[in-house]
Amino acid sequence: IHAIADSLFYMGEGEAMELVEFAKDKKGYLDLAFRKTGSLFSSAAEVGALVGGGDKIQIEKLKEFGNHIGLAFQIRDDILDCISKEDDLGKPVKKDLFMGRPSIVLLDAINSGISIERMMKCNNGELMHLVSESIENAKNVAIEEVDIAKHQIENFDDSYAKTKLNEMGDYIITRSK
User: Fold this and answer.
1) CB atoms < 10 A from the CB of 110, how many?
2) Is the distance from CB of 75 to CB of 33 less than 8 angstroms?
3) For the chain, which residues make up each domain, given as ranges?
4) Which of 83, 80, 40 has its CA nearest to residue 63?
């Protein structure tokens, strides 16, 4: 119950933070992404470890695994918001941009000197070209987060579960929806 309660607290805190202040850099973005997404994945992994009878070290490692997988998931979501078509994604695209939400792609582009106004005037193809370097940078951060997640479980015994967790990391950084 504590894991789920903590997750709900962090998620609510993240939503409130997003309304009040705009993340200005990668560190601020990752903190917000942890609160909104990483904490949910972290608590899910923690609960799985608890239910599965994991020891303290396994529980902590899986909690960290979930956190970093959650961050990678959120980063990929930000990338998809820029590169997808609405029909393919199944939800509105460029939503983060139009709502002024701090995505890692948006922050990187702004910090590279591209204005929000300029990005908002672009169609999807133009936007993708304009922020292509920021998209690549975001992909690299997602890959780093998955690598950190995988590192958390590398000393676990080889098993079907470990294989599936590693495959989940690979899927998250390549998913198209």
Assistant:
1) 18
2) yes
3) 2-174
4) 40
pLDDT digits (tens, 9 = 90+) for 30-76: 998 998 899 999 999 999 999 999 999 999 999 999 999 999 999 99
Q: What angle do CA 129, 92, 165 make, to 5 degrees?
A: 85
pTM for this model (two decimals): 0.87
CB 59 within 8 A of CB 46: yes
Q: What's domain 2-174's superfamily in CATH?
A: Farnesyl Diphosphate Synthase (1.10.600.10)
List pLDDT tens digits, range 142-161.
999 999 999 999 999 999 99
> CA 39 to CA 71: how far, in whole Å?
9
CA 141/CA 118 separation, integer angstroms: 24
| Distance between CA atoms of residues 149 and 165, nearest Å | 9
Residue 174: Cβ-neighbour burial (10 angstroms; 0-12, 13-18, 19+): exposed
Tell me, what amino acid is at 39?
A: S
